[in-house]
Amino acid sequence: MTAGGALLARLKAVGVDYIFANSGTDFPPVIEGLAEAQARDLPLPHALVMPHEAAAMGMAHGYYLATGRAQAVMAHTNVGLANCAIGAINAAAEQVPVLLFSGRTPTTEAGRLGSRTVPIGWGQEMRDQHALVREASKWDYELRFPEQVPQIVDRAHAIAHSTPPGPVYVSLPRETLCESIAYPALSAPPSAAPAKACADPAALDEAARLIASAERPLIVAQRGCGSQEGFAALARIAERWAIPVVQYWAIQLAIAADHPMSAGVDPSPYIEEADLILAIDCLSPWSPAAHRPSENARILHLGRDPLYQRFPVRHFPSHLSIVSEVDAGLLALEKALAPLREEADRRVETRRPRIESRVRKTRESVLAAARAGAGDPPTKEHVSLCLGEALRGREAAVFSELGCPLAPLALTRPDSWYQEPHSGGLGWAFPAALGFQLARRERLVVATMGDGSYIFSNPAACHQIAEALELPVLILVLNNSEWGAVRQSVLGLYPDGYASKANTMPLTSLAPTPDFTRIAQASRAWTALVETGEALPAVLTEAIAHVETERTHALVEIRVRP
């Protein structure tokens, strides 16, 4: 069998369901391998045509969020890999495993099957193609011999899933993929198992002792709890010990909005008074420019990489760092805390009414502000409030990229919220939602994004994928005709500067924006344009009904305030 065919068959054996591929002139042995493996009746991953590599990376990201299993992305030499780079950066920042492959321009100019045949064979050669994604990869390698295929796939898969998980990259020279040898055991179980971290029992005992003795503890969670079991464990810890949980710039949901200790998204009311802070899987648990923990506060970090070692500058104090899969760590911490609860009863019950009152007031304030934003046009917060009402009683997953904010949504499920990666590679939400929908066909999946993020997503490509694969995602484009995040950043640094007084702030306007509904209509999507807060609830209801009954994707463009 050719190495190209063996590669595909081995990916299926290690658990890859899909190959998100954008093919090129380096793909003949891969395409031949697909046909060859099918002719030999070998089980293969589904190979899906991706019109753009950024969509391929986003879909692999979203599929992992839905399943916990890394998928494969295949791109065309250096140019396709360059389009994958932003997705690789996003995956690395969020510890999402992806098996990334791209062809390598043939080394030989003639004389071998697979040698260069067209001018791009010279134009696409690089001295170090791997450098395009090496900093975002846990491990990279160039396939050199056809007999390496099973071992390299197994190693790539195991490293990608090892704690902390992340993307890996393998380049595939065309000559190597064209070679044929005997592969006796392509369907054998993987030969390498991922390495998973387990929390140090002594560190857990120390963390439990510190939490139990704290007068004003605080939990900050950013990337969820790892699983349904971890989500439930954190809810029990927070309730039993009366500890407020703040979700600052939350990438995934860690606690239900209606939990009595769910303290919102702003750590400001809690962080300066806290004598202990437990940061759960937080890249940036607070902003040093805005928040100042007490010098006497004990600060604990729990996560798969609590010190986030791949980031050169990150100095949040960590008096105790616990390396663990998040859900396993929370369950073990709950167990370590249990025998200490009776002794801490006075401290816990003394602070409980104060925290519950503060949580209620925070929630009431958030909802009041969202309701007050029901103008013409409405605020993003009001859109979020209306979306939350429309989703009530449904099992939905919301992907937000500078779109609907979390606080007014009132979500309660652990797999209901996914925010754009902290790496800031825009264009993520739309394809990630498609990947999630591919894995969870029964779920209502909503992608909300700003107009700039929608443009970055290569929307024509994403709409084509949604139609071709019959993925009924609901897309909400919150259009304020500007780079809103950039404008807010400028105002944060120069609140009284010249830019703040300008009629149009330089380098922030996106006006005039296209008619986004027409872009979606080109792929037969259901569409609507909303310009008033009053019209929004009915349109959302109609859009959701279409998605759920007709099972095709829909786009609602919502004009919002700058």
From TrEMBL:
Keyword Cell cycle (UniProt): no
Keyword field:
Thiamine pyrophosphate
| Lipid biosynthesis recorded as keyword | no
Where would I find the Thiamine pyrophosphate enzyme TPP-binding domain in this sequence? Answer: 410-546
Locate the Thiamine pyrophosphate enzyme N-terminal TPP-binding domain: which residues? 1-124
Q: Which Pfam families match?
A: TPP_enzyme_C, TPP_enzyme_M, TPP_enzyme_N
Q: Which family does it belong to?
A: Belongs to the TPP enzyme family.
The protein's name: Thiamine pyrophosphate-requiring protein
Provide the species name. Answer: Aureimonas populi
